[in-house]
Structure formats: structure tokens, C-alpha cells
Amino acid sequence: MLRIGHGFDVHAFAEGRRLVLGGVDVPAERGLAGHSDADVVAHALMDAVLGALREGDIGKLFPDTDPAYEGADSLVLMRHVAELAHSRGWRVADADCTIAAQAPKLAPYREQMRANMAAALGVPAEAVGVKATTTERLGFVGREEGIAAWAVVLLERLEP
Fold first, then answer.
1. Residue 144: helix, strand or coil by DSSP?
2. What is the mean pLDDT of each run of 10 residues along the chain (160 residues)?
3. Is the full-model pTM beyond 0.90?
4. Is 15 marked as binding a ligand?
5. 136 annotated as belonging to a binding site for a ligand
6. Can you tell me the distance from the alpha carbon of 47 to that of 31, in angstroms, rounded to the nearest whole number?
7. Is there a contact between 142 and 13 (Cβ–Cβ < 8 Å)?
8. Ligand-binding site membership of 47 (annotated)
9. CA pair distance 39, 18, nearest whole angstrom
């Protein structure tokens, strides 16, 4: 048995914050605003997994009103999502993520993002895809106001 999930997230740029994408500290003048580390691609991927599980979204599981998640490492949260999937009898078979960012250039960090998120999900790096694109200077991403990310995940039922 298979299930598919889709996730989307967006965060605005903020001064004085680190830019964390897929668990990688990307050198940049600004980071992303958020209650946790604001790792937009990890958030999209977690939402995809939670959607496939029919468990809502990360806001339900890790509310931004809870001080326990302030500054939280999104890969630690992703491990909790993977554990939830396993407890429900599912595992990630495959995932693919797209990051829309006008700047900075993300290609040099793609493989490390894949490896980081795969490790957090407990799957081989080959099971996680990461792509980056610009919006050709269109919209909030093109105006360099923030970053958006999409993810799709395929879950497969664990053998009993």
C-alpha cells in the first residue's frame, strides 16, 4: 500500500538570522523569520509526510505558540515526524523537494541537504531529491523577500 503527501512552506527573510535549508547553514546576509530555525524546505517535507499520514501539518504537531520549539532544529523535528510515520506503520519510500530562491545560489549545498534530510528520515540519500530554482525575479521570491519550498513524498506500508 502506498500514500502520497504534498507540502508547501514559505518564510520571509529576516536580518540577524541564520539561513538554514535542509539542515545546512547557507552563507547569506539574511536568514529566514520563524519560531524554529525556519528551515523552509525541511518544513515542506515534514508537511508532506504528515499529509500522507493524514496527521495535519507541522503547526499542529509543533505549534509556534509552544516555547519548547523556539529556535528548534528542524531536522530534530523531522526525526520525530519519521518516528510518527513508523509508529503508524509507514516509511518514506521517496521524496522530492523544490526550493524557490532568487538568492543565494543553492547548488553547492544540494547534496548536503539531501543527505541531512535523508538521515533525519532514516532513508538513503538516494530517496530524497532537492532542486533549487529562481522565479525569474517575479513575485516575493523574485524580489528577494523570502524563500518558498514544495515537497512531495511517497510513503509505503511497513511489513507487519
1. coil
2. 98 97 97 97 98 96 93 97 98 98 96 98 98 96 97 93
3. yes
4. no
5. yes
6. 21
7. no
8. no
9. 10
Grid coordinates representing 35? Answer: 519560531
Q: Amino acid letter at 101?
A: A
CA distance 84 to 5: 15
Determine contact, residues 22/16, Cβ cutoff 8 Å: no
Query: Residue 58, annotated ligand binder?
Result: yes
80 is in an annotated binding site: no
Using an 8 Å Cβ cutoff, are 137 and 29 in contact? no
What DSSP state is assigned to residue 65? Answer: T
Find out whether 69 and 63 touch, Cβ atoms under 8 Å. Answer: yes
Long-range CB pairs of 76-81 (<8 Å, 24+ gap) are 76/120, 77/36, 77/42, 77/46, 78/42, 78/45, 78/46, 78/117, 78/120, 78/121, 79/120, 79/121, 79/122, 81/46, 81/49, 81/50, 81/121
Q: Measure the N-to-C terminal CA separation of the chain; round to a whole number of Å.
A: 12
What the block records as the C-alpha cell of 124 is 538513503
